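Ticket #4471: structure output looks truncated?

Reporter: J.K.
Steps to reproduce: submitted the chain below (381 residues) through the standard prediction queue, then opened the result file.
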Amino acid sequence: MHVLSFRPEVILYIYMASCLSVLVFNILYIFADKYKGRALEKRSLSFVGEISAQIERLKEAGEPEAAHYKRLRKELKNPEKLRAFEYSVLTVKQQVPEEYTAEYLRSLRGVFLELAGVYRKRDTIEQAYFAYLIEKFRIDEGRESFDGIMDFLMDMITGKDVNARENAMRAFYAIGNESAILAIWRKLEDNEISHSRKLLADGHLSFRVDRKKLAKLLFAHREEFGTTLFLPVMQFIRFFTGDFQQQFFTLLSGKNEDKKIQLEAIRYFRRYPYEPVREILQNYVRYQEYIDWEYAAMAASALASYPGEDTVFCLKEGLKAANWYVRLNCAEALIYGLGISRLRLFDVENGRDRYAREIIRYVLEKEQIRQQEMKEGQVNV
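Returned output as attached by the reporter:
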C-alpha cells in the first residue's frame, strides 16, 4: 500500500507507540541509574569502614596492613571501584582529622605507582580520572625525581585529549616539582601543542611549593619558548609578584620584542609601578599617531599608576588621539585612576578639541551615574 493512502488514525497510532517506547526507555533508564547509584553507594560504604580501620592502625602501628594494600592494588584496577574509593575517602575526611587522612593517602603511593602502569593502557577518560585522583589525593607531592607516576602523567601531556592533559598538568602542580614543569613546557613547545593560555597561567598559581622559584626557572629558559608559551609565564608572574620589574623592563625596552610580550609587560607595570618605565609609557601616549594604537591604549591605562603633573598633562593630550580606545583609556585613567576632579578638567571639557570634549564628558557622566547608583543602593540597604 502506498504511503499516501495511510489513514490519519494509523499515523497517530504509530506516533503514540513511538512516544510510549521513549517513555518506557526513560523509566527503565531511571531505575537502572538508581540501581547503579545504590550499588556505588554500597561499595563506598564497604571502603569507608576499611579506610577508617586502617587509619586507626596507622595511628597505632605507623602504617596500614599489607593486606589492605594488596586489596587496593587488585580492586582499584576497576574504574567503578576506584570511583567508590574516592567517595569513601571524602566520607572519611568528614569524620577524621585532615592530618590522618593525608598521612593515609601518602602511604598509598606504592599502590598508585602500580596502578599507573594499569591505567596507562586504558582509554583517555580513565587516564584523565586517574590523573585527577593523583592531584586530589596529593599522591606524589614533594617528589623530586621522576617515577612511574610522573612518567604516566608526562605521556598524557602530548596526547590529543585536552581534559586529560589538563588533569595531568594539575597533578604536576600538586606534586610541586619545578623541573617537571619545565619539562612539560619543553614538551608543549617541541610538539607544538596548543593549550589554553588562561589554564596555563592559572595552573601555575596552584603550584604547591615555591612559586617564585618556578617563575625564575621558567623565565631563565625564556629563549626556548615562543610567544604562545611565554605569555602564560608572564601572566603567572603578574598575578603574584612584583619582583620581576627589571626583567620585564628589558622585555618592554627590546626593539625586536614581540608585540604581545610588550603589551603584557605594560600590564605588569600597571600593577607594579616602576619609575624607569614612566617616560616609556608617556611616550607611547605622546606619540600614539606614529605607533600601533594598542601600545598607546595600554600605556594610557597603565599611567593611572604613575601620578604626577607630567602624567596628567600627557593624558590630557592623549584625549585628542584619533583612536577612540586611546581617548577612552586616557579619560578613565584621569578620572578613575588618578582621581582628577571635574574642575581640573574644565579646560578639556570646554576646550576646542571635539574628540577630547566628548570623551571626557562621556566618562564624567558615566562616573556620575555610577556614584548615583551607589548612593541609591546604600539608601535601599
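Triage note (M.O.): checked the attachment and the full C-alpha cell line is present. The first helix runs from residue 8 to 61.
Status: closed, working as intended.
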